[in-house]
């Protein structure tokens, strides 16, 4: 049985690339904005391109904000947030002051400081795991904001002068600031690791 | 800082990949999808697909091409050519593009960059600037009218930055297809803005990448002709550049 992935469509994401990557990784993805699909899926993916308030508004309009909170917080369904998708786990973001995010993880989203390099930060960066997940590698980033998180949620950091969380995990919630679907071999290794986490939480028959 | 990118560019005319020589001649070289797949296998850090006649012919870069190309791509793809509306951007992202670039529209439609950046985030919106060296001066060139615009290159880059552009590609028209190296004076303009700047036009050897990375702050360098005509060209160039420039991405072990 292939794992069923619900890729949440908020109108502005690069859902096509994520769909292809998950299909190549051996899952059965669907692109959706329906509460029913969310509850039927084995795991959820919040993809990555867009702007914080636009994405939250789109979830509101589709009427699935609460369905997502319930599935992730109460049912502990595994979820992967990619880039903006991870930032939506926070309660607030400097990108859209006054807009409430999904409010599922501690920490907040801040703008990258301009004195440490270009903003947006676009390109490949070395990532070091802070646990034994084995997700070290070089990944593709494309963002202007980063997730400032309590240390106990951080499972990987970027290297070099510009240090910020590359990957977060809290129970069933996993987020990455980079784009695994666009990170060639490293991205494939990362997705395989994530799918292992999903399978270990939901043993298949 | 992100590592500096070695980018494979593919110039297209509708469904065909073409080789561009100083913007005057376009030789068809084949299926862009096949080239994109090769660039992906050779570990390009990014692929830029540019439909160079879309604006002039009043059409949009082929969505069907993007869908076919991204079916197997694991490499970031930036796409442009004839984009005029927010809906078209959404359509291209949905088809598999990761970022889009605008050239003509950024000038003709004053609020487009701002609106697109607000909607999709700055990181997603790239500007392509054609630059022509005229009597030793670098000027913004408009290929539709084949004239240089009055605004200076510096002013135009600053204006784009203020409007919320996420990256600027500087393409040297005079170096295009010549394979004599990047225009280093043009690359020096990377220091004028806080957003990443990519240099394009003129790459003919590994040395040219080393030169431009040493001489300027560019976040990446593009080549098309150099990469499209020989097997594993990107891998070979990266291998060479890595010996002198540690700030680029290492090759993954499975490199061909």
Structure in words:
The complex is a heterodimer of chains A (205) and B (256). In chain A, β10 and β11 form a beta hairpin. Chain A is built from 6 helices and 11 strands. Chain A has one domain: Class I glutamine amidotransferase (GATase) domain (Rossmann fold, 3-Layer(aba) Sandwich), CATH 3.40.50.880. The mean pLDDT of chain A is 93. The longest helix of chain A has 18 residues. Chain A is an alpha/beta fold and 205 residues long. By secondary structure, chain B is an alpha/beta fold. Chain B has a single domain, classed as Alpha-Beta Barrel (TIM Barrel). Helix content of chain B is 32%, strand content 28%. Chain B has 10 helices and 12 strands. An 8-stranded parallel barrel of chain B has the order 1-4-5-6-7-10-11-12, surrounded by 5 helices. In chain B, α1 packs parallel to α2 and α8 crosses α10. Chains A and B meet through α1, β6, β7 and α6 of A and α3 and α5 of B.
Task: Show the helix and strand layout.
The complex is a heterodimer of chains A (205) and B (256).
Chain A: E1 4-8, H1 15-24, E2 28-32, H2 35-40, E3 43-46, H3 52-62, H4 65-74, E4 79-82, H5 84-87, E5 108-111, E6 121-129, E7 137-143, E8 145-148, E9 154-158, E10 165-170, E11 173-176, H6 184-201
Parallel strand pairs in A: 1-2, 1-3, 3-4, 4-11
Antiparallel strand pairs in A: 5-8, 6-7, 6-9, 9-10, 10-11
Chain B: E1 5-13, E2 16-21, E3 25-30, H1 32-41, E4 46-51, H2 63-70, E5 77-80, H3 86-95, E6 99-102, H4 104-108, H5 112-120, E7 125-134, E8 137-142, E9 147-152, H6 153-163, E10 167-172, H7 184-187, E11 197-200, H8 206-215, E12 220-223, H9 225-228, H10 233-242
Parallel strand pairs in B: 1-4, 1-12, 4-5, 5-6, 6-7, 7-10, 10-11, 11-12
Antiparallel strand pairs in B: 1-2, 2-3, 7-8, 8-9
Helix pairs in contact in B: 1-2, 8-10
